[in-house]
């Protein structure tokens, strides 16, 4: 390895260290992460295949679910295979361009995940609070526009990240104390003032996360108000059960992502292994939970999968 104090615009590679202090447990830590990744891939691919094959599922809820599944597949695949190579094979080196690409996918698709959670919350609001107008409000054209807006927002706000890092000189150590190329972990290795770059990244993340979270909370508050006005106790319990499972996934996503964001800004006393472990959780747990909560617990998808299995077994 070249001297650590040599300034270069584009270093050949970085060195990912994994979870500091838990290197001796990397092999064991990789097992649950691998298991969740397999479930995430199988579950999300199954959802995409089922919705594509079943014409009756071409409804707003399932179309947004497909967008979320694609996002989950890209988000988890951009990090987990490389992370498992680090845990199990000791593959610490990552090329500079691969690091920038991974960083772009992580941050832009995390923003897209947040946007699709908001879109699904809007769909639930319209379905429960305006059931007679659901089909006319959320037409296929509007669904496509909402999906495109979420996609463009994620790409537009986070494309500057790799461009900014490409221009920075790196004259400190190339060791990244993390399991993947996280923006704040990489930018700290630069040997110039990075105040403006850090402020841009944190501001964008805060703006997107807080706005989406606020609108989701507002949507579910209106949904709860409508649910408690339903005359049937059975209907109220069914609606609450559906919304409750959705809210659990959203809470896991925003709480872990929020913890990671706040740790960069304020949590200088948080143990590195705690910070990094939770930063990994928000990349693998939502893609693992989404197909279970939105797929298995959705009657139409569950019935289609079971009927397909019965046909194949017979």
From TrEMBL:
<keyword id="KW-0552">Olfaction</keyword>
<keyword id="KW-0472">Membrane</keyword>
<dbReference type="GO" id="GO:0005886">
    <property type="term" value="C:plasma membrane"/>
</dbReference>
<protein>
    <recommendedName>
        <fullName>G-protein coupled receptors family 1 profile domain-containing protein</fullName>
    </recommendedName>
</protein>
<dbReference type="InterPro" id="IPR000725">
    <property type="entry name" value="Olfact_rcpt"/>
</dbReference>
<keyword id="KW-0675">Receptor</keyword>
<feature type="transmembrane region" description="Helical">
    <location>
        <begin position="62"/>
        <end position="80"/>
    </location>
</feature>
<keyword id="KW-0297">G-protein coupled receptor</keyword>
<feature type="domain" description="G-protein coupled receptors family 1 profile">
    <location>
        <begin position="43"/>
        <end position="294"/>
    </location>
</feature>
<dbReference type="Pfam" id="PF13853">
    <property type="entry name" value="7tm_4"/>
</dbReference>
<feature type="transmembrane region" description="Helical">
    <location>
        <begin position="100"/>
        <end position="122"/>
    </location>
</feature>
<keyword id="KW-1133">Transmembrane helix</keyword>
<keyword id="KW-0812">Transmembrane</keyword>
<feature type="transmembrane region" description="Helical">
    <location>
        <begin position="274"/>
        <end position="296"/>
    </location>
</feature>
<keyword id="KW-0716">Sensory transduction</keyword>
<feature type="transmembrane region" description="Helical">
    <location>
        <begin position="204"/>
        <end position="227"/>
    </location>
</feature>
<feature type="transmembrane region" description="Helical">
    <location>
        <begin position="239"/>
        <end position="262"/>
    </location>
</feature>
<comment type="function">
    <text>Odorant receptor.</text>
</comment>
<dbReference type="GO" id="GO:0004984">
    <property type="term" value="F:olfactory receptor activity"/>
</dbReference>
<feature type="transmembrane region" description="Helical">
    <location>
        <begin position="143"/>
        <end position="160"/>
    </location>
</feature>
<keyword id="KW-0807">Transducer</keyword>
<dbReference type="GO" id="GO:0004930">
    <property type="term" value="F:G protein-coupled receptor activity"/>
</dbReference>
<dbReference type="InterPro" id="IPR017452">
    <property type="entry name" value="GPCR_Rhodpsn_7TM"/>
</dbReference>
<dbReference type="InterPro" id="IPR050402">
    <property type="entry name" value="OR51/52/56-like"/>
</dbReference>
<feature type="transmembrane region" description="Helical">
    <location>
        <begin position="25"/>
        <end position="50"/>
    </location>
</feature>
<dbReference type="InterPro" id="IPR000276">
    <property type="entry name" value="GPCR_Rhodpsn"/>
</dbReference>
